[in-house]
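Re: that chain you flagged

S.,

Sorry for the slow reply, it's been a week of failed gels. I finally had a moment to sit down with the sequence you sent. For the record, here it is as I used it:
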Amino acid sequence: MSLIEIFRNVFINIWANKFRAFLTMLGIIVGSATILLVVAVGKGGQKSVEEQFARLNVGTLYIMSNPVQTGGQVLNSKDVEAILEKVSSVKEASISISGKVQAGYYDTSYQASVVGVMEGFKELNNLNLKKGIFINNEDDEQRRKAAVIGYDLAEILFGEEKDDAVGKLIIVNKRKYEVIGVLQRLGDSMQGLNMDESVLVPYTVAEKYILGKDVKPRIIALVSDNKYVKSATQEISDVVNQAHRIKNTDDFVVRDQGSRLAAAQDTARTMSILLISVATIVLIVGGIGIMNVLFVSVKERTREIGILKAIGAKKKDILLHFLLEAVLVSLVGGLMGIMLGSAIVPLTKYIDMETIPSALGIELAFIFSAATGTFFGYYPAAKAAELSPIEALSYE
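Prediction finished late last night. Pasting the structure tokens below so you have them in one place:
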């Protein structure tokens, strides 16, 4: 039999049983669409992680009280001075303190994050101002009631007048603070803080008038070169422990930004792999469906196979006939799944999920669907090719 004749017979058989063929494709359609979506979600997740960490250099170090330990000593501004003085590889450091507070302007109030900061906080966290100025050391020393607010908080409190927020007075913890600056919108949280909905005030003001001394501060340090991260981590730990005269080295922890970024990226990749595994299982189930349908088709067309062999069709012709049928059903299902997945990807924005369509997703969906059809279609096709012409012709 010629290849054209085989293709013709395949199309005729699929069209004659188009509803059954469609039901057979469903597993492949769902599996292919899932793979495309999974890759898009994975790409979006990795982008979100990278954007979240992009504002901070991989040479950024965090020094904080051990979250597992209860009680114990806390960091203070003298620790910042000691780190800058004794750890030569650290070029900049700043201390901050944060908590929740009620911020208000006339009749509008909002439960916002309050962050007590020093002058270096802005550069260390790559913050940009939309309007006004940032808190400086003089504000901290003189305990000025000055505040820099996030972009979203400015919208909440001032509405259409947000562009004129600088110079106005807001209420924070029942005290008046003058807005001296508004941050540019960041769009995501930063180390557990949503800066877009935060109030930044001088560190000493937050400690004395808002949060008190029960909240544990955190120090951010930046090394001059990424190659010093490991040595600086140990040096900072030694300096802080020495400053507090403690022998229990578990009281404080030093974490580097690079390892946190790598861990977050690994988590995103692991999630993508797990989701792809689920999609693969769906495709396997779809492949089993194709195999079952082909077995039924072989049974139904046993006499036809016998006639084809009787008029000269070879084993490879019969094998190719049924294998092409399986692959064609699988490929059509894969293409339909790709179209379905491509249509769903733009809709994910309505559920606040970031997805990035990619050629990789389409390629994987197409390859998996083709492989599924070939793998699960081969055995029924081989069984059909092995049928004896005499037995096939006498089959009732």
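What I noticed first: Residues 3-51+262-393 form one domain.

Talk soon,
D.
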